[in-house]
Amino acid sequence: MKKKLAIDAMGGDFAPKSVVEGVKQAQAAFSDTEFILFGDEEKIRAYLSDETNITIVHTPDKIDSGEADPVKAIRKKKSASMVMAATAVKNGEADALISAGNTGALLASGIFVVGRIKQVDRPGLMSTMPTADGAGFDMLDLGANAENTARHLHNFAVLGSFYASNVRGIKSPRIGLLNNGSEASKGAPLQKEAYDLLSADTSINFIGNVEARDLLSGVADVVVTDGFTGNAVLKSIEGTASNLMKQLMTAINQGGLRAKLGALLMKKSLYSLKDSLDYEKAGGAVLFGLKAPVVKSHGSSNADAIFATIKQTHKMLETDVVGKLVQHYNAENGVAND
Amino acid sequence: MKKKLAIDAMGGDFAPKSVVEGVKQAQAAFSDTEFILFGDEEKIRAYLSDETNITIVHTPDKIDSGEADPVKAIRKKKSASMVMAATAVKNGEADALISAGNTGALLASGIFVVGRIKQVDRPGLMSTMPTADGAGFDMLDLGANAENTARHLHNFAVLGSFYASNVRGIKSPRIGLLNNGSEASKGAPLQKEAYDLLSADTSINFIGNVEARDLLSGVADVVVTDGFTGNAVLKSIEGTASNLMKQLMTAINQGGLRAKLGALLMKKSLYSLKDSLDYEKAGGAVLFGLKAPVVKSHGSSNADAIFATIKQTHKMLETDVVGKLVQHYNAENGVAND
């Protein structure tokens, strides 16, 4: 049976153009997949030539990126492209949801329309971030939750471990707890309690506390933290990287002819640095812990970034990571669970 | 009257050499200052030629950088260089304390030996961090506290505002609250409550929530956050910057002759980038809210970094920022204080 992806064609800064163009790359790459595009039929069709494996569901409305109250927006705009795509997943007409639109609205669509796996109190927003060695690491929660308990953090560890082993093919992924020092006694009560829960769970490979300073060196395969801290750390890393690249360009431009000639000679090296910082190549952010994959592509996604997100979602379906997760939780039913 | 600095000559990876050499730079720069060096007299004297304005207080013991329980260490090792330097400040024999030694022990020396300003529940650890435009911003708390209340965050804002206006000479410093979005309604209860306290205080220039992504672009002059998040953000920024510089060097080395030649031509530009990332030029981290300046220089400080920390501490004494802070709190006595 074909994999069916519900794609919000109207989400993101360059929609529907970049979304449709990303889908066309995926159409050429995956013959086992049907792409259901939700959005303005006419605008979508303008970028399509061959509609093999592509279905368009016309939606008269969309969620805006600047929606003041995203939760209210998805409740009111039942015929918005994102909401109808989520409803298709809920009704079993599609296997996964992809959008580059409003993050808050997608989180709400995921939780309230697609729905949580029963045993997962708080789904976590997770991204695979780049490391110097190219292996990358998964971090969650990146901000789906403003507050978390130690039990939520333990749940994030289980989710991250499942994702890293199934989707990224890492055997026994090293799980680290983000903390303000590496000693077991570190942190606020939240981290201390989480440390104990994680240490007691023999089903995961918990390696202890890790510090934010060591994340990009690949200190762990999965890094677990509360949504507030995760959001701050993600944005610090992104902000620092983009700021440094800007400063490097300024240094080159102000450095006169010598510097410019030097930069020209270094072009390939500088591009390889820029590439290694390219978060979009790694795909989107997964709201993990739901009954189906719900994946957020960056708002500024171009066609390549959309294709990367589709590839990632395709892998999630191919490996049936959500199905295995549900089995794992069902097997634990009746068994004491931390 | 001369300013008197109590300096832990045995703290840091390159002590006492780099400490004494930093003091010698300061000795040449500031004739109005007396430097009281605490540590192994013989080892200190080995690096000294001219002892004008320098006093050595021999201490037979020191706090190690790897002390498992720094609080216990400062209580037990009464004759350690750091503890004796702190005691000299407490007894009024010196006006400020500087150390590149064990951070936990210095925080404990500051709080338990030097002592808090009565109205400051929780002193904050604060650094001036570099921005692209060179202006920099102060952030606190960077980890003196694992947990903070909204009242602590409000106090950090007052402390940071005082420091930025007095020591850095910024008129009406823009105070931002680190949050997971810029809207007023963002964050966990801690941030929401802090937002209300900060908004209500007309004595500071509160500009609202700021995101970690925008810190290095200079979105605020002072950024206020709890110690756990502040520590994670600081380490994320440092880790990302050092990782990128390493990746840049790898890209150059793997780029062959062209890239190496290019890098040679770009040398000055690359150095200017490296310089702008150099946290040590901005001085040390201040444990602010104590009865006297207590400043932590980086553990790996060389002589230049020690000199930068001394210059910063000298400025704190020259501007009497701590005295003004005490006056501010005393003036508020009996007045309702958020």
UniProtKB/TrEMBL annotation, chains A, B:
Any one Gene Ontology molecular-function term assigned to this protein's record: phosphate:acyl-[acyl carrier protein] acyltransferase activity
Catalytic activity: a fatty acyl-[ACP] + phosphate = an acyl phosphate + holo-[ACP]
InterPro entries with a match to the protein in the record: FA_synthesis, Phospholipid_synth_PlsX-like
Keyword match Glycoprotein: no
Biological process according to GO: fatty acid biosynthetic process; phospholipid biosynthetic process
Compartment(s) where it occurs, according to its Swiss-Prot or TrEMBL record: Cytoplasm
Protein name from the UniProt record: Phosphate acyltransferase
GO cellular component, one term: cytoplasm
Origin superkingdom: Bacteria
Keyword NAD included in the entry's annotation: no
Annotated metabolic or biological route of this protein: Lipid metabolism; phospholipid metabolism
EC number: 2.3.1.274
Assembly and interaction partners: Homodimer. Probably interacts with PlsY.
Residues in coiled coil: none
Alphabetical UniProt keywords: Acyltransferase, Cytoplasm, Lipid biosynthesis, Lipid metabolism, Phospholipid biosynthesis, Phospholipid metabolism, Transferase
Family: Belongs to the PlsX family.
